[in-house]
Write a structure and sequence with these properties.
binds zinc ion; 6-stranded parallel beta sheet; binds glutamine; alpha/beta; 21 strands; globular
């Protein structure tokens, strides 16, 4: 047993440093890899990450954190929450796992949604009153067999049920608990010494009864698992007022996220029962920056003195699932910037350094932390992070620079006159199918096989085809189709100062899907126009208006790793100014419509409602600032990929956009109700682009008619519910033709009913 404080991790990245898991999964789905080969590949990956973490000097390593697809889905399978439509498939089989994850010809998959406030997506378990839970412990046992001294990670029963959909799933707790009890007994019998039970739901606003449910579950689990060392892990925020009751649970160890919620440390220390250990989540598991080891050691040392080393563990704030593998590998990055970064591998090293440093006297420790300290100092003083011009400009803004010149009602007639559109104008959200040819050309261009000039020629030909097709289809407001964009955030990140992009900084988004979030490390500004020439090329081909297409400041932040040395509202302000500069250039080039996508505005909502107003204030201000410099007769569209606005319609109104397009095709149009008094125009999606299904024209007409019951025709637009880049032209052309036909028939209709 090592002396001093131990180090622990709650979970490791699992896709493989080169996305090996994705490669293996996709080969398996194509039928090129057998199930046994897939499992072998997965085992090798899992083993390798444990070996690496052990080599880095981590004392407590996780198991069952690995997943072929998603850990919430694994939990559903573990406890037997298998919806009827999959019941005929064999328990424990890959077939069942992937059927629930991806659906079959006859059974739609589980729904997917965001894992708390991260960009990871989990599959939503379905729990019905008749769900019969039963244990299949094969996976955690197999991982324990592979690595005997690991601490299995289990998603706790209350979080599991809270994430599930169904009729008040938490009522199923008493039926579920025997399965958890049995699981713990099995793990213990199998040789597990400790188990980590994650209850991240504890950092959210708790409905009545949830905390009591956690207490009940812990009484039962602790009784069933006598002799097992149980950790309760809560992360992504603070426990708030639940803290004292959580500390009093019969757990041997409580893990706290002290990066998101450092303020809970003191009260936790004050209320910690004598027999309980504290796992201090002091290394940021969600972001990519090196830690201030000196500062952490200074905070931890007195706690160690007070409680004793055996009652303290050091850990990342949450699972390392949310950061890429290794910053060291990013040889394409500016070495200075690279030196500031800590991905998963470097975070494990930081933990080991912290542990070593805590066991040393001050001067040895200072020597040990010197390289980390130097990197931090360099970052603080670097010309790469600070740009006086940007700062002066952001600081000199006054409130009226957030607002457009006139009100929406005053702008509308000016825009109507300039655009001369028919009622119920038709348009799309921006991207058109990203075909294999487009991806291929981009790849060859990136690899240096296709010259810049040839690539440009290729893209222009794509745009020309896209404009021609849209004219033929009869759309009123056209788009250039975004063929030049690899991704709506990365494209701009590659062109704005203050951002860096990585070569292998992949993190799992869902299943085999990985993303490479850009790194926003410094003050942001726009060295030169980013989209104007593409827009101009497209507009020159047609007499109809072509929308300029931008990604908004909040979405840029939400889908990037953001600097931690500057408050989010300031960062948003800089981004807003930079993107606003582009909007103004589009306007000067002649664009009559500029669309600013804020796909992630809602995702950014903080977990706790008390924090929401603050977030919405700066996020919406950033959007307003982006659009503010545009003339009254320039129409600003905003697109958002969701429609459950519920209580924040008011916030949406404050965006002061002229036209709002939302995802509504999958939901009931009743959600348009709150928009009845919305000052601007609305385009509720009438074509669900998330499915390959091409809706009929009558169906879309019907949806329009229903929309008109909530929003007057003069304020309605007709569009799909999101960008079309994931679809194929074979689907898109007929779908858009039917959309246009539906709009035309509605224009002729005089009532809100659809003629048979
Ligand atoms: N303009 C983007 C597109 O059409 C918007 C995508 C999004 O909001 N997710 O692809
Ligand atoms: Zn969208």
């Amino acid at each position: 047993m090592p002396d001093g404080v131990q180090t622990a991790v709650l979970g490791l990245p699992r896709i493989g440093p080169d996305r090996e898991l994705k490669v293996a999964l996709e080969a398996y789905w194509r039928g090129e890899l057998s199930g046994a080969e897939l499992e072998r590949a997965a085992r090798a990956l899992h083993r390798r990450q444990l070996v690496d973490a052990a080599a880095a000097g981590i004392d407590v390593l996780p198991s069952n954190d690995f997943s072929l697809y998603d850990h919430v889905l694994d939990t559903a399978l573990l406890v037997g929450a298998i919806p009827d439509r999959f019941r005929h498939l064999e328990r424990g089989s890959l077939e069942l796992l992937f059927a629930m994850a991806r659906g079959t010809d006859t059974a739609p998959p589980l729904e997917m949604t965001k894992w708390f406030d991260t960009n990871y997506h989990y599959l939503v378990p379905e729990v019905a009153p008749e769900t019969h839970f039963s244990l299949d412990p094969a996976k955690p046992l197999a991982e324990l067999r592979e690595a005997a001294r690991t601490r299995p990670v289990i998603l706790g029963p209350v979080s599991f049920l809270s994430l599930a959909k169904g009729d008040r799933p938490l009522r199923a707790l008493d039926r579920l608990l025997p399965v958890y009890e049995e699981l713990l007994r099995r793990l213990h019998a199998f040789g597990a010494q400790a188990v980590q039970i994650d209850e991240p739901v504890l950092v959210t606003d708790l409905d009545v009864g949830v905390l009591a449910a956690v207490e009940r579950s812990w009484e039962r689990m602790a009784a069933a698992a006598r002799g097992l060392d149980l950790t309760l892990a809560a992360y992504f925020g603070g426990l708030g007022s639940a803290l004292p009751r959580v500390l009093a649970l019969p757990a041997r160890e409580i893990h706290l996220d002290l990066v998101c919620a450092p303020e809970q440390l003191e009260p936790a220390l004050a209320a910690l029962p004598a027999g309980t250990r504290l796992s201090l989540g002091v290394i940021d598991g969600r972001n990519v920056w090196r830690s201030d080891l000196e500062a952490i050691a200074a905070r931890v040392e007195p706690i160690v003195d007070r409680l004793g080393a055996d009652r303290i563990r050091l850990a990342p704030s949450c699972s390392l699932l949310h950061v890429p593998y290794s910053a060291r590998r990013e040889q394409g990055l500016d070495p200075e910037l690279r030196g500031w970064l800590a991905f998963a591998e470097e975070k494990l090293e930081e933990l080991a350094l912290l542990k070593a440093g805590l066991a040393m006297g001050p001067s040895d420790r200072a020597r040990l932390f010197a390289p980390a300290h130097a990197a931090l100092e360099a970052r603080r003083g670097s010309a790469h992070t600070h740009d006086d011009h940007v700062r002066r400009r952001a600081a000199s803004l006054c409130d009226d620079e957030l607002a457009r010149r006139s009100t929406a009602a005053e702008r509308a007639p000016q825009q109507a006159e300039r655009l001369a559109l028919p009622p119920l104008p038709t348009t799309t959200i921006g991207s058109l199918p990203q075909t294999t040819e487009i991806r291929d050309a981009r790849r060859r261009h990136d690899a240096g096989e296709l010259s810049a000039a040839d690539y440009e020629r290729f893209l222009k030909a794509e745009i020309r085809t896209a404009i021609g097709l849209q004219e033929q289809i009869g759309l009123d407001v056209l788009v250039h189709g975004e063929p030049e964009r690899n991704d709506m955030v990365q494209y701009f990140a590659e062109r704005l100062a203050g951002f860096a992009t990585t070569e292998a900084g992949w993190v799992q988004s869902y299943g085999s899907r990985c993303v490479r979030p850009p790194i926003l490390f410094g003050d942001v500004w726009r060295p030169k126009p980013m989209t104007v020439s593409w827009w101009r090329y497209a507009q020159d081909l047609t007499a109809r208006p072509v929308k300029g297409m931008l990604t908004g400041p909040v979405t840029m932040m939400q889908w990037s790793f953001v600097r931690d040395d500057e408050p989010a509202p300031q960062v948003a302000r800089q981004l807003a100014l930079a993107i606003g500069d582009e909007a103004v250039d589009l306007e000067r080039a002649g664009a009559a419509i500029v669309q600013i996508d804020e796909a992630a505005l809602r995702e950014g909502l903080p977990l706790r409602s008390a924090d929401r107003d603050g977030y919405l204030r700066w996020a919406i201000d950033a959007f307003r600032l982006t659009a503010a410099p545009l003339r009254d007769d320039t129409q600003v569209h905003v697109h958002m990929c969701y429609s459950e606005f519920g209580d924040f319609v008011e916030a949406i109104a404050r965006l002061d956009a002229d036209v709002l397009s939302i995802e509504a095709s999958r939901s009931s149009l009743d959600l348009l109700e709150p928009f009845a008094d919305y000052p601007a125009q609305v385009g509720p999606g009438v074509y669900d682009i998330h499915s390959p299904r091409v809706p009929s024209s009558v169906e879309m007409e019907e949806r329009l008619a229903r929309a008109e019951r909530h929003i007057p025709r003069e304020r309605l637009w007709v569009n799909p519910d999101c960008g079309l880049k994931t679809r194929r032209w074979e689907e898109v052309v007929p779908a858009l033709e039917r959309l246009v036909a539906a709009a035309q028939r509605r224009r002729a209709a005089t009532t809100t009913a659809v003629a048979a």
